[in-house]
DNA sequence: CGATAAGCGAGACGGTACGTCAAGTCTTATA
DNA sequence: TATAAGACTTGACGTACCGTCTCGCTTATCG
């Protein structure tokens, strides 16, 4: 499962120094945070990690793979909550999504994907390793909501996931400021109104069983509509 | 108007050759489409445009500015429709938005914005010149809808615009496939359900006054479920 | 005789601005003194002279010709003395030669001659305008000395002139320090001993009719031989 | 010895390819001979040598250093003869000096020294590596002559060396034609007459023990006149 | 237990693009 | 027609990074 480093280390000969993997990934993250994807120099990363260029290329075939591994190195799993309060779950799940993306250095994801030299394989790998987990968490949360009857049956789950995920990414890419919990909740409310079987009931349930993610501000916006 | 090129051409001396501006921008677009942002070589662009590097740097101070000008060179204005059918207007407006972004070579926007070397000024310029026009068209369409009473009064217009715009950008950046009219309509419907004062009325109006953008498929999905 | 500027100004149309010639030559000399031949930028010269590049090229076909004209602009004629004291005349004449060359900015002559692009014509022009005058002064001085019987009849005047001139140039090119009068005199004495019909007589005459150029140090070196 | 290239190659890492040094220096000499110093393009040299620009800059920090190394690469050591015939030795030694300088492509030395960008260090290096060896050979020859009593005791050896060296350089720089052995001998005779303790004796010795460097023409000029 | 295979740091290798600068020519509007 | 201004093409400059390679050395495992 050790996704990160080893291309395919040989069984014989001197074994790889495992500490180098971590040192390089950390150094790469620092460099990415400092100079962005375009300004990333592999020789600088190697020096900062106390190693050399060939050691990098022994582990990752291209610059892109190294960056991908570095990003993967720092994300933590998104564990979708399941409190049976659809609105709360969705807000929290999306919050985790946002957190995962905002933890990455800004201005790295997009150039990485667009670098082209590594073609579709890289995009696929990126999706599998970085993007799908939080996305699947959102999808799972939505599926649970549908299964318990909170959503209309004709709702296109894929489209809804895209709507939510795109909002997160939009901010991560163009956003001047980070996405606040307040904004997340507002987005969730708007989307839910569009897909809920009985939105007022969901809202009532959320007010009755407030989640820890700022339940008070959560409903302030729509309170007058009640 | 001050479209693409001239940084600030002097009033005296030999005037700039206007044909060079266009030739360079066209060549740059071709090169971007062929090799992506990272693979863009200014000397290659200059050669393809039948001119030289200094002529480029005389017009655009950095690679980013040139690319920005090239992108701006090919987008056409988004004229928001106003047929008083909220759903139709919104779908068409968003379709224009998508078209504008999909006309750009893929994998250019993101690295351009993330290149960093030009800092915040570039992001601002990008927003002003490329992003805001279609965005404002959507906002205007939404504002018209609200003014004619189609939307709830407490709707956050900014948030809604972001939700729609982010969906477009998401596809333009991560999208494997282009965004189809069908997807646009589905997204519009979902969002509208979340913000409409009386969604069934909007839907009925759209069905009574079908727009040219595939009105039949448009409502097929949800109409039967009602 | 106006050697400097005008390539061949037309008789009709707007007449050339004569002040530009002088301004350019002066600016060129300043620039040469500051940055040497290799660091000379014509556009910088034009700006410093308050004019433009085309105005320069209208007057001098190449960079080399401009430099040549600039050097010529500042040299003054070498008037060979004729006091019938061979040693004094020669020393003074050579001193004028040295002065003429040391007045020129260092490190300009040689690169100018070696620039090649202007071929033999430039070398010829250089010789005619800059080098031959002081050289001819030395040759004249030597010829006068021979005519009055101070030199052996078989002396090769051309060779002797070259020996003396080369010493001057050597210092102007490789010399770390300027050539002092003392060194000039020592060189003259050595050469004279090699070509004089009766060196002791010349020496005695120089001592009897001391020239203003430091007569005391002049003979100090050889005094013990007396 | 430390001939041409390596600035200061590190002891660790991949060692430099020695063949590149030679290939570059040879290519540089060819280019210098073809286009002169001013027309020397480092990228052209690199291409001609089958290598790349960075490989050049790794070895020589500036264009000047490369040219200096190239010149040094082709000069051979000047071994001063010691036949106890002062006149013969001096003539041969000076002939070697001339040969060494005329082997260099014309019009390179002077612009190299005048390029300025490398300052005094370059001039010093040039002196040490190229100029001093033949110069010291002449000085040694003169010192031997003095030690065996052939020269007057008050002769300034430094000045004499300068007189002879300057004659060589003068021709190498301004010379239209190469310096012939005949001219060398004439110059030696003239100078020797100025510094010999007993010139007729030296001349007689040279005639009695003729050297291989054209002894017959050597004295033809002056012998009859006596 | 010694050979061998692969790891290691270091850095040179050929390429390629960068952004700048100068040369010499041209094209304006103005005088 | 000359002028000032400046845009034009060409091409070298010196630097930086890429991904590969070669070195001398160290460290395991296998024979």
Automatic annotation (TrEMBL), chains A, B, C, D:
Keywords linked to the UniProt accession: DNA-binding, Transcription, Transcription regulation
DNA-binding region: 41-60
Position of the signal peptide: none
Name of a matching Pfam family: TetR_C_11
Superkingdom of origin organism: Bacteria
Domain HTH tetR-type: from-to ranges: 18-78
InterPro entries recorded: Homeodomain-like_sf, HTH-type_TetR-like_transc_reg, HTH_TetR, Tet_transcr_reg_TetR-rel_C_sf, TetR_C
Gene Ontology molecular function terms on file: DNA-binding transcription factor activity; transcription cis-regulatory region binding
Full protein name: Bacterial regulatory protein, tetR family
Organism: Isoptericola dokdonensis DS-3
Taxonomy of the source species: Bacteria, Bacillati, Actinomycetota, Actinomycetes, Micrococcales
């Amino acid at each position: 499962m050790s996704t990160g480093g080893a291309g395919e280390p040989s069984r014989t000969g001197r074994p790889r120094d495992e500490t180098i993997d971590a040192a390089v990934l950390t150094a790469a993250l620092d460099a990415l945070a400092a100079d962005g994807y375009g300004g990333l120099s592999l020789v600088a990363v190697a020096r900062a990690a106390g190693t050399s260029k060939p050691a990098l290329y022994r582990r990752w075939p291209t610059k892109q793979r190294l960056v991908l591994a570095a990003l993967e190195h720092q994300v933590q799993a998104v564990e979708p909550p399941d409190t049976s309060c659809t609105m709360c779950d969705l807000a929290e799940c999306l919050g985790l999504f946002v957190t995962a993306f905002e933890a990455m250095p800004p201005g790295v994801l997009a150039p990485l994907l667009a670098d082209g030299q590594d073609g579709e394989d890289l995009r696929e790998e990126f999706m599998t390793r970085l993007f799908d987990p939080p996305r699947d968490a959102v999808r799972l949360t939505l599926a649970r909501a549908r299964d318990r009857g909170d959503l209309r049956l004709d709702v296109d789950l894929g489209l809804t996931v895209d709507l939510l995920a795109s909002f997160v990414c939009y901010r991560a890419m163009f956003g001047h400021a980070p996405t606040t919990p307040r904004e997340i909740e507002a987005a969730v409310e708007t989307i839910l109104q569009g897909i809920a079987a009985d939105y007022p009931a969901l809202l009532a349930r959320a007010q009755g069983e407030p989640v820890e993610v700022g339940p008070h501000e959560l409903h302030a916006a729509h309170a007058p509509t009640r």
